[in-house]
Design brief:
alpha+beta, five-stranded mixed sheet, 5 strands, 9 helices
Length: 329
């Protein structure tokens, strides 16, 4: 009887006690989750910076061999029109051997870049479109300015992990997108031979002869995903960008979602002009990191620049020869 009374006196948790335990667990999760997310973002940021360092080492090795940096775009068709079939490879394709990718480099067709990475049986079927001549616009102006909307067939590029930032929306996709682009010009400008950055059409700048100094000039940065090019082997807006204010790119990403609403009130001619303007734009730098956009400085260091960085300071960092150094940035 006594044993039965002891067993009968035992009971489980009350509903109030269970709620208290659940509340404590929720509070702990709420406190720990931001720390976990911050740790993950820190890991992504470090991985992104490491990618830029690897690209910087490869560019430095190229410089040691050829005494100049690779051209931003090797082409006779200038200015480079994003919706026309690209005619030459860009800086990434030229440094592949120094990234340990000699086998991929050997698959690039320098004569007809759009046929690069193709299987032999596919080449006969490949007919580049966008039949405009050098420096001419093909006439298309699609809403979607990604590779799928280009008026020519884009080769399926091998995926290179060094070109992918895990914070990028394209980080886990098997596409031809590069998360990093060369510094072309300090303001919005079509890709051409007379830009003031270190990588532009048919450029041959040297790390040893930068007028403003290698420590005051940016070389590469994280590219905005708002506008995309034909692929990482080409020298177009997918691999070269301009020095638009860093915060401005974030605003433009938001405004782009409202383009259809804005142009709906315009005439057909105005709509066509607006879509052509968007299609021809080279664009700037941006990232999905919390506060910063990562850049490779010409001296080999990697810096995370705040989106609040003064626009004039940023333009001076892109310009290799503005005649004034930047003390701190």
């Amino acid at each position: 009887m006594r044993a039965n009374r002891i067993l009968g006196s035992r009971r489980g948790f009350t509903f109030l006690e269970l709620l208290s335990v659940v509340a404590v667990i929720c509070i702990l999760v709420a406190l720990l989750l931001p720390a976990v997310q911050a740790a993950r973002e820190q890991a992504r940021r470090l991985q992104c910076q490491n990618n830029l360092r690897q690209l910087g080492v490869a560019l430095g090795q190229y410089q040691s061999v050829f005494r100049t940096l690779p051209s931003g775009a090797v082409t006779t068709a200038v200015p480079v029109i994003p919706l026309n079939a690209p005619e030459g490879i860009g800086w990434i394709g030229q440094i592949l051997p120094y990234l340990g990718e000699q086998a991929i480099y050997m698959r690039i067709d320098n004569e007809q870049p759009l046929r690069s990475f193709s299987r032999g049986e596919d080449r006969a079927a490949e007919v580049p479109g966008g039949g405009a001549g050098p420096g001419e616009f093909s006439g298309a102006g699609p809403d979607d300015v990604g590779p799928s909307a280009l008026p020519f067939r884009v080769p399926e590029h091998p995926v290179l992990s060094v070109l992918r930032c895990s914070s990028s929306p394209f980080g886990n996709q098997t596409e031809s997108v590069s998360s990093y682009a060369g510094c072309h010009h300090s303001t919005e400008k079509a890709i051409d031979v007379d830009a003031d950055g270190l990588l532009y059409a048919n450029s041959s700048e040297s790390l040893e002869a930068i007028p403003d100094g290698s420590g005051n000039t940016l070389l590469l940065g994280e590219a905005s995903e708002r506008l995309r090019g034909a692929g990482w082997i080409f020298g177009d807006r997918g691999t070269l960008r301009n020095g638009l204010p860093l915060g401005q790119e974030q605003v433009r990403n938001q405004l782009k979602q409202q383009v259809d609403e804005l142009v709906s009130t315009q005439s057909e001619e105005q709509q066509a002009a607006e879509r052509i303007r968007l299609a021809l734009e080279v664009g700037g730098f941006a990232s999905k990191h919390s506060y910063h956009v990562n850049f490779l400085v010409a001296d080999g260091s990697v810096r995370g620049l705040s989106r609040q960085l003064d626009a004039d300071v940023f333009r001076r960092l892109i310009n290799r020869n503005d005649g004034s150094g930047v003390a701190e940035f």
